[in-house]
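The records we work with from here on pair a chain with its fold. Each token is a code from a learned vocabulary of local backbone shapes. A record is reproduced here so that you can trace the correspondence yourselves:

_____
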Amino acid sequence: MVAKFRERVEIIEQRCIQFLDTSFQNLRSAEGAFQLLQKFKNIESREIINNKMSEKFSDILRQYGAEV
């Protein structure tokens, strides 16, 4: 029973990561991406999702550099 719960948690984590990847691919500007990241940061989440959001922050900085 616990193993099934953990398996489902992992599936949800992977879907959240896919959602983050998809959401940030479709943004047109670094400013919009940063605003979206700030909204996500206010949500309490699991470590793997927090790590993915940190990666997105680096992606946003690269995008901002390209825009400037």
In short: The mean pLDDT is 85. Helices lie at 2-25, 30-41, 47-67.
